[in-house]
Amino acid sequence: MSLALDKPRQPRRPAARRSNGELYSWLFMRLSGLLLVVLVLGHLFIMNILDGGVHKINFGFVAGRWASPFWQFWDLAMLWLAQIHGGNGVRTVINDYARKDSTRFWLKMLLYVSMVLIVSLGTFVIFTFDPNISSN
Amino acid sequence: MTATAETTAGSRGSQPPVPDGAVTVTVKIRRFNPEFDDEPRWDSFDIPALPSDRVLNLLHYIKWYVDGTLTFRRSCAHGICGSDAMRINGVNRLACKVLLKDLLQTGDKQTTITIEPIKGLPVNKDLLVDMEPFFEAFRAVKPYLVTYGNEPTRERIQSVADRERFDDTTKCILCACCTTSCPVYWTEGSYFGPAAIVNAHRFIFDSRDEGAEERLDILNDIDGVWRCRTTFNCTDACPRGIQVTKAIQEVKRALLFKRV
Protein backbone atom coordinates (compact mmCIF):
# COMPACT_ATOMS: atom_id res chain seq x y z
CA MET A 1 0.00 0.00 0.00
CA SER A 2 1.52 3.24 -1.04
CA LEU A 3 0.15 6.55 0.09
CA ALA A 4 2.76 8.57 -1.77
CA LEU A 5 1.30 10.64 -4.55
CA ASP A 6 3.18 11.60 -7.71
CA LYS A 7 2.09 15.20 -7.73
CA PRO A 8 0.42 15.87 -4.41
CA ARG A 9 -0.18 19.58 -4.86
CA GLN A 10 0.46 22.11 -7.52
CA PRO A 11 2.75 24.85 -6.25
CA ARG A 12 0.81 27.61 -7.97
CA ARG A 13 -2.86 27.92 -8.61
CA PRO A 14 -3.69 28.65 -12.25
CA ALA A 15 -5.58 31.88 -12.86
CA ALA A 16 -9.28 31.43 -12.19
CA ARG A 17 -11.31 30.67 -15.28
CA ARG A 18 -14.40 32.76 -14.85
CA SER A 19 -17.30 30.96 -16.47
CA ASN A 20 -20.46 29.23 -15.41
CA GLY A 21 -19.52 26.03 -17.26
CA GLU A 22 -19.10 23.89 -14.17
CA LEU A 23 -22.31 25.27 -12.69
CA TYR A 24 -24.30 24.37 -15.80
CA SER A 25 -22.73 20.92 -16.03
CA TRP A 26 -23.59 20.31 -12.35
CA LEU A 27 -27.16 21.48 -12.91
CA PHE A 28 -27.51 19.43 -16.09
CA MET A 29 -26.51 16.27 -14.20
CA ARG A 30 -29.35 16.79 -11.69
CA LEU A 31 -32.03 17.66 -14.24
CA SER A 32 -31.09 15.02 -16.82
CA GLY A 33 -30.85 12.45 -14.01
CA LEU A 34 -34.45 13.14 -13.03
CA LEU A 35 -35.65 12.90 -16.62
CA LEU A 36 -33.67 9.73 -17.24
CA VAL A 37 -35.31 7.99 -14.30
CA VAL A 38 -38.68 8.42 -16.05
CA LEU A 39 -37.42 7.72 -19.57
CA VAL A 40 -35.27 4.68 -18.77
CA LEU A 41 -37.69 3.05 -16.34
CA GLY A 42 -40.52 3.62 -18.82
CA HIS A 43 -38.42 2.11 -21.57
CA LEU A 44 -37.51 -0.92 -19.46
CA PHE A 45 -41.14 -1.42 -18.47
CA ILE A 46 -42.43 -1.29 -22.05
CA MET A 47 -39.66 -3.41 -23.53
CA ASN A 48 -39.19 -6.04 -20.84
CA ILE A 49 -42.36 -6.38 -18.77
CA LEU A 50 -45.52 -5.38 -20.66
CA ASP A 51 -47.11 -7.81 -23.16
CA GLY A 52 -44.93 -10.88 -22.88
CA GLY A 53 -41.78 -8.96 -22.13
CA VAL A 54 -38.58 -9.26 -24.08
CA HIS A 55 -39.89 -12.09 -26.33
CA LYS A 56 -42.20 -9.79 -28.26
CA ILE A 57 -39.34 -7.60 -29.48
CA ASN A 58 -38.56 -8.08 -33.15
CA PHE A 59 -38.07 -5.96 -36.24
CA GLY A 60 -41.79 -5.41 -36.59
CA PHE A 61 -42.20 -4.23 -32.99
CA VAL A 62 -39.42 -1.66 -33.33
CA ALA A 63 -40.75 -0.53 -36.71
CA GLY A 64 -44.21 -0.10 -35.23
CA ARG A 65 -42.94 2.01 -32.35
CA TRP A 66 -40.79 4.25 -34.51
CA ALA A 67 -43.71 4.95 -36.81
CA SER A 68 -44.96 7.25 -34.05
CA PRO A 69 -43.16 10.60 -33.52
CA PHE A 70 -43.80 10.23 -29.77
CA TRP A 71 -41.63 7.13 -29.45
CA GLN A 72 -39.08 8.59 -31.84
CA PHE A 73 -38.81 11.60 -29.53
CA TRP A 74 -38.73 9.39 -26.43
CA ASP A 75 -35.84 7.34 -27.76
CA LEU A 76 -34.04 10.39 -29.07
CA ALA A 77 -34.31 12.17 -25.71
CA MET A 78 -33.13 9.04 -23.92
CA LEU A 79 -30.16 8.66 -26.26
CA TRP A 80 -29.01 12.26 -25.99
CA LEU A 81 -29.58 12.65 -22.27
CA ALA A 82 -28.01 9.31 -21.36
CA GLN A 83 -25.01 9.92 -23.58
CA ILE A 84 -24.35 13.46 -22.35
CA HIS A 85 -25.13 12.58 -18.73
CA GLY A 86 -22.82 9.58 -18.80
CA GLY A 87 -20.18 11.41 -20.81
CA ASN A 88 -20.20 14.32 -18.38
CA GLY A 89 -19.82 11.88 -15.51
CA VAL A 90 -16.83 10.23 -17.16
CA ARG A 91 -15.38 13.68 -17.88
CA THR A 92 -15.57 14.42 -14.14
CA VAL A 93 -13.86 11.14 -13.35
CA ILE A 94 -11.09 11.90 -15.86
CA ASN A 95 -10.67 15.41 -14.42
CA ASP A 96 -10.39 13.97 -10.92
CA TYR A 97 -8.09 11.07 -11.57
CA ALA A 98 -5.83 11.86 -14.53
CA ARG A 99 -2.44 12.80 -13.14
CA LYS A 100 -0.86 14.32 -16.25
CA ASP A 101 -2.33 17.10 -18.35
CA SER A 102 -1.60 15.19 -21.56
CA THR A 103 -3.35 12.04 -20.25
CA ARG A 104 -6.31 14.17 -19.23
CA PHE A 105 -6.46 15.84 -22.65
CA TRP A 106 -6.29 12.62 -24.69
CA LEU A 107 -8.74 10.70 -22.50
CA LYS A 108 -11.21 13.55 -22.85
CA MET A 109 -10.70 13.71 -26.61
CA LEU A 110 -11.38 9.97 -26.83
CA LEU A 111 -14.50 10.46 -24.73
CA TYR A 112 -15.81 13.37 -26.79
CA VAL A 113 -15.20 11.60 -30.10
CA SER A 114 -17.02 8.47 -28.88
CA MET A 115 -19.90 10.59 -27.58
CA VAL A 116 -20.32 12.45 -30.87
CA LEU A 117 -20.07 9.19 -32.81
CA ILE A 118 -22.72 7.36 -30.78
CA VAL A 119 -25.11 10.31 -30.56
CA SER A 120 -24.95 11.03 -34.29
CA LEU A 121 -25.22 7.37 -35.31
CA GLY A 122 -28.23 6.86 -33.01
CA THR A 123 -29.93 10.05 -34.16
CA PHE A 124 -29.31 9.08 -37.78
CA VAL A 125 -30.92 5.66 -37.26
CA ILE A 126 -33.96 7.03 -35.45
CA PHE A 127 -34.74 9.53 -38.20
CA THR A 128 -33.85 7.49 -41.28
CA PHE A 129 -35.23 4.13 -40.13
CA ASP A 130 -36.92 2.43 -43.05
CA PRO A 131 -39.57 -0.13 -42.03
CA ASN A 132 -39.76 -1.47 -45.61
CA ILE A 133 -36.09 -2.41 -45.82
CA SER A 134 -35.62 -5.81 -47.49
CA SER A 135 -34.46 -8.48 -45.11
CA ASN A 136 -32.45 -10.69 -47.49
CA MET B 1 26.40 15.83 8.94
CA THR B 2 26.93 13.31 11.71
CA ALA B 3 23.40 12.05 12.19
CA THR B 4 22.85 8.32 12.01
CA ALA B 5 19.76 6.48 10.89
CA GLU B 6 19.37 4.37 14.02
CA THR B 7 18.60 6.52 17.03
CA THR B 8 17.02 4.54 19.80
CA ALA B 9 17.16 6.94 22.76
CA GLY B 10 14.33 9.26 23.56
CA SER B 11 14.85 12.95 24.08
CA ARG B 12 14.08 12.84 27.84
CA GLY B 13 16.22 9.92 29.00
CA SER B 14 15.08 6.74 30.70
CA GLN B 15 11.52 5.51 30.70
CA PRO B 16 9.31 6.50 33.66
CA PRO B 17 7.74 3.77 35.84
CA VAL B 18 4.69 2.11 34.29
CA PRO B 19 1.55 3.36 36.08
CA ASP B 20 -1.10 1.04 37.54
CA GLY B 21 -3.77 -0.01 35.06
CA ALA B 22 -1.55 0.51 32.02
CA VAL B 23 -1.99 -1.70 28.97
CA THR B 24 0.59 -2.36 26.27
CA VAL B 25 -0.43 -1.08 22.89
CA THR B 26 1.31 -1.24 19.53
CA VAL B 27 1.67 2.09 17.80
CA LYS B 28 2.41 1.69 14.11
CA ILE B 29 3.66 4.90 12.58
CA ARG B 30 4.27 5.69 8.94
CA ARG B 31 7.63 7.42 8.90
CA PHE B 32 9.76 9.18 6.36
CA ASN B 33 13.13 10.81 6.84
CA PRO B 34 14.12 12.67 3.68
CA GLU B 35 17.82 12.35 4.58
CA PHE B 36 17.84 8.56 4.59
CA ASP B 37 14.62 7.17 3.13
CA ASP B 38 13.60 6.92 -0.49
CA GLU B 39 10.21 5.53 0.44
CA PRO B 40 8.08 5.95 3.55
CA ARG B 41 8.34 3.03 5.98
CA TRP B 42 6.35 1.66 8.93
CA ASP B 43 7.78 1.65 12.46
CA SER B 44 6.09 -0.16 15.35
CA PHE B 45 6.46 0.66 19.04
CA ASP B 46 5.07 -1.41 21.94
CA ILE B 47 4.47 1.04 24.74
CA PRO B 48 2.54 1.11 28.03
CA ALA B 49 -0.44 3.46 28.11
CA LEU B 50 -3.48 4.25 30.22
CA PRO B 51 -6.96 4.04 28.69
CA SER B 52 -7.43 7.69 29.66
CA ASP B 53 -4.41 8.72 27.58
CA ARG B 54 -4.84 10.59 24.34
CA VAL B 55 -3.07 9.43 21.18
CA LEU B 56 -0.87 12.50 21.54
CA ASN B 57 0.36 11.13 24.89
CA LEU B 58 1.48 7.95 23.12
CA LEU B 59 3.41 9.99 20.56
CA HIS B 60 5.01 12.00 23.38
CA TYR B 61 5.98 8.79 25.14
CA ILE B 62 7.66 7.48 22.00
CA LYS B 63 9.43 10.74 21.28
CA TRP B 64 10.52 11.37 24.87
CA TYR B 65 11.49 7.86 25.98
CA VAL B 66 11.88 5.56 22.96
CA ASP B 67 12.86 7.34 19.76
CA GLY B 68 13.68 11.03 19.88
CA THR B 69 13.76 11.33 16.09
CA LEU B 70 9.98 10.92 15.76
CA THR B 71 8.72 14.16 14.25
CA PHE B 72 5.22 15.61 14.55
CA ARG B 73 3.51 18.96 15.14
CA ARG B 74 1.62 19.91 18.24
CA SER B 75 1.23 23.16 20.10
CA CYS B 76 -1.61 23.55 22.57
CA ALA B 77 -2.40 19.83 22.87
CA HIS B 78 -6.01 20.68 23.76
CA GLY B 79 -7.83 20.70 20.42
CA ILE B 80 -7.67 24.46 19.88
CA CYS B 81 -4.61 25.18 17.75
CA GLY B 82 -5.15 22.49 15.12
CA SER B 83 -1.50 21.49 14.81
CA ASP B 84 -1.67 17.75 15.35
CA ALA B 85 -4.01 16.60 12.61
CA MET B 86 -3.08 13.08 11.51
CA ARG B 87 -4.60 9.92 10.08
CA ILE B 88 -5.35 7.69 13.06
CA ASN B 89 -6.59 4.19 12.17
CA GLY B 90 -7.42 5.46 8.70
CA VAL B 91 -9.43 8.54 9.63
CA ASN B 92 -8.30 12.12 10.08
CA ARG B 93 -8.34 13.21 13.71
CA LEU B 94 -6.53 15.54 16.07
CA ALA B 95 -4.18 13.33 18.10
CA CYS B 96 -4.96 15.43 21.19
CA LYS B 97 -8.69 14.70 20.98
CA VAL B 98 -8.67 10.92 20.50
CA LEU B 99 -8.73 8.87 23.72
CA LEU B 100 -7.00 5.51 23.82
CA LYS B 101 -10.02 3.87 25.50
CA ASP B 102 -12.00 4.48 22.30
CA LEU B 103 -9.41 2.57 20.26
CA LEU B 104 -8.80 -0.37 22.60
CA GLN B 105 -9.63 -3.87 21.37
CA THR B 106 -12.05 -5.84 23.49
CA GLY B 107 -10.93 -9.02 25.24
CA ASP B 108 -7.29 -10.05 25.24
CA LYS B 109 -6.54 -8.88 21.72
CA GLN B 110 -3.51 -6.67 21.24
CA THR B 111 -4.42 -3.12 20.29
CA THR B 112 -2.64 -1.69 17.26
CA ILE B 113 -3.00 1.97 16.41
CA THR B 114 -1.85 3.08 12.98
CA ILE B 115 -0.80 6.68 12.58
CA GLU B 116 -0.03 8.28 9.23
CA PRO B 117 0.56 11.84 8.08
CA ILE B 118 -2.51 13.54 6.60
CA LYS B 119 -2.87 12.67 2.95
CA GLY B 120 -2.52 14.86 -0.13
CA LEU B 121 0.10 17.27 1.22
CA PRO B 122 3.85 16.76 0.71
CA VAL B 123 5.45 14.98 3.69
CA ASN B 124 8.47 16.80 5.12
CA LYS B 125 9.34 14.26 7.80
CA ASP B 126 7.37 11.53 9.58
CA LEU B 127 3.99 13.06 10.52
CA LEU B 128 5.02 16.59 9.57
CA VAL B 129 3.56 17.79 6.27
CA ASP B 130 4.06 20.96 4.25
CA MET B 131 0.88 22.96 4.92
CA GLU B 132 1.67 25.68 2.39
CA PRO B 133 -0.58 24.36 -0.46
CA PHE B 134 -3.41 24.18 2.08
CA PHE B 135 -2.89 27.78 3.21
CA GLU B 136 -2.49 28.91 -0.38
CA ALA B 137 -6.03 27.66 -1.12
CA PHE B 138 -7.21 29.33 2.10
CA ARG B 139 -5.73 32.70 1.11
CA ALA B 140 -7.14 32.40 -2.42
CA VAL B 141 -10.74 32.80 -1.16
CA LYS B 142 -10.01 36.15 0.56
CA PRO B 143 -10.74 35.06 4.14
CA TYR B 144 -11.01 38.59 5.55
CA LEU B 145 -13.61 41.34 5.73
CA VAL B 146 -14.05 43.07 2.38
CA THR B 147 -15.96 46.38 2.35
CA TYR B 148 -16.30 49.30 -0.02
CA GLY B 149 -17.11 52.95 0.42
CA ASN B 150 -16.53 55.07 3.48
CA GLU B 151 -15.87 53.43 6.80
CA PRO B 152 -18.75 53.86 9.22
CA THR B 153 -18.05 56.05 12.23
CA ARG B 154 -19.57 53.45 14.54
CA GLU B 155 -19.15 49.70 14.72
CA ARG B 156 -20.79 47.52 12.07
CA ILE B 157 -23.97 46.27 13.67
CA GLN B 158 -25.30 42.77 12.96
CA SER B 159 -28.51 41.10 14.11
CA VAL B 160 -28.48 37.81 16.00
CA ALA B 161 -30.17 36.09 13.06
CA ASP B 162 -27.55 37.40 10.62
CA ARG B 163 -24.77 36.23 12.92
CA GLU B 164 -26.38 32.80 13.19
CA ARG B 165 -26.11 32.19 9.42
CA PHE B 166 -22.36 31.69 9.46
CA ASP B 167 -21.91 30.69 13.10
CA ASP B 168 -20.98 27.10 12.26
CA THR B 169 -18.14 28.03 9.92
CA THR B 170 -16.53 30.46 12.39
CA LYS B 171 -15.40 27.43 14.38
CA CYS B 172 -12.71 26.37 11.88
CA ILE B 173 -9.20 26.05 13.32
CA LEU B 174 -7.47 25.30 9.97
CA CYS B 175 -6.17 21.92 11.07
CA ALA B 176 -6.61 20.51 7.52
CA CYS B 177 -8.43 17.38 8.76
CA CYS B 178 -11.30 17.99 6.34
CA THR B 179 -9.30 18.99 3.28
CA THR B 180 -6.90 16.07 3.56
CA SER B 181 -9.77 13.60 4.04
CA CYS B 182 -11.31 14.62 0.71
CA PRO B 183 -10.75 12.08 -2.11
CA VAL B 184 -10.99 14.82 -4.73
CA TYR B 185 -8.22 16.75 -2.93
CA TRP B 186 -5.99 13.63 -2.85
CA THR B 187 -5.98 13.16 -6.58
CA GLU B 188 -6.74 16.47 -8.19
CA GLY B 189 -4.00 19.06 -8.36
CA SER B 190 -5.72 22.29 -7.46
CA TYR B 191 -9.15 21.75 -5.87
CA PHE B 192 -9.66 24.41 -3.19
CA GLY B 193 -10.67 21.80 -0.64
CA PRO B 194 -13.34 21.90 2.08
CA ALA B 195 -11.45 24.13 4.54
CA ALA B 196 -11.04 26.97 2.03
CA ILE B 197 -14.74 26.75 1.12
CA VAL B 198 -15.71 26.74 4.82
CA ASN B 199 -13.70 29.92 5.36
CA ALA B 200 -15.19 31.51 2.25
CA HIS B 201 -18.64 30.58 3.59
CA ARG B 202 -17.83 32.37 6.85
CA PHE B 203 -17.50 35.68 4.97
CA ILE B 204 -19.92 35.13 2.07
CA PHE B 205 -22.83 34.80 4.51
CA ASP B 206 -21.67 37.63 6.79
CA SER B 207 -24.08 40.56 6.42
CA ARG B 208 -21.26 43.07 7.14
CA ASP B 209 -19.11 41.78 4.30
CA GLU B 210 -19.34 43.08 0.73
CA GLY B 211 -16.99 40.66 -1.02
CA ALA B 212 -19.43 37.78 -1.42
CA GLU B 213 -19.57 38.16 -5.18
CA GLU B 214 -15.79 38.04 -5.59
CA ARG B 215 -15.53 34.93 -3.45
CA LEU B 216 -18.45 33.21 -5.19
CA ASP B 217 -16.77 33.99 -8.48
CA ILE B 218 -13.57 32.34 -7.28
CA LEU B 219 -15.45 29.26 -6.04
CA ASN B 220 -17.43 28.99 -9.30
CA ASP B 221 -14.13 28.02 -10.90
CA ILE B 222 -13.44 24.53 -12.25
CA ASP B 223 -11.44 23.93 -9.03
CA GLY B 224 -14.21 25.32 -6.84
CA VAL B 225 -17.35 23.98 -5.17
CA TRP B 226 -18.56 22.01 -8.20
CA ARG B 227 -15.77 19.50 -7.66
CA CYS B 228 -17.38 18.48 -4.37
CA ARG B 229 -18.87 14.97 -4.64
CA THR B 230 -20.64 15.16 -1.26
CA THR B 231 -18.60 12.26 0.11
CA PHE B 232 -19.06 13.65 3.66
CA ASN B 233 -15.48 12.64 4.62
CA CYS B 234 -14.88 16.26 5.61
CA THR B 235 -17.89 16.47 7.90
CA ASP B 236 -16.85 13.23 9.57
CA ALA B 237 -13.26 14.40 9.99
CA CYS B 238 -13.88 17.89 11.42
CA PRO B 239 -12.73 17.97 15.06
CA ARG B 240 -14.88 21.05 15.67
CA GLY B 241 -18.06 19.37 14.43
CA ILE B 242 -18.58 21.83 11.57
CA GLN B 243 -21.17 20.66 9.04
CA VAL B 244 -18.64 21.08 6.24
CA THR B 245 -20.61 19.44 3.43
CA LYS B 246 -23.64 21.53 4.36
CA ALA B 247 -21.55 24.70 4.13
CA ILE B 248 -20.30 23.66 0.68
CA GLN B 249 -23.89 22.97 -0.42
CA GLU B 250 -24.94 26.42 0.81
CA VAL B 251 -22.23 28.00 -1.33
CA LYS B 252 -23.44 25.92 -4.31
CA ARG B 253 -26.98 27.11 -3.68
CA ALA B 254 -25.85 30.73 -3.48
CA LEU B 255 -24.14 30.32 -6.86
CA LEU B 256 -27.10 28.50 -8.40
CA PHE B 257 -29.74 31.05 -7.39
CA LYS B 258 -27.35 34.03 -7.46
CA ARG B 259 -28.52 34.96 -4.00
CA VAL B 260 -26.69 34.93 -0.70
From TrEMBL, chain A:
Membrane-spanning ranges: 27-50, 70-88, 109-129
UniProt keyword list: Heme, Iron, Membrane, Metal-binding, Transmembrane, Transmembrane helix
Main location class: membrane
Compartments, record wording: Membrane
Protein name from the UniProt record: Succinate dehydrogenase hydrophobic membrane anchor subunit
CDD domains registered for this protein in UniProt: SQR_TypeA_SdhD_like
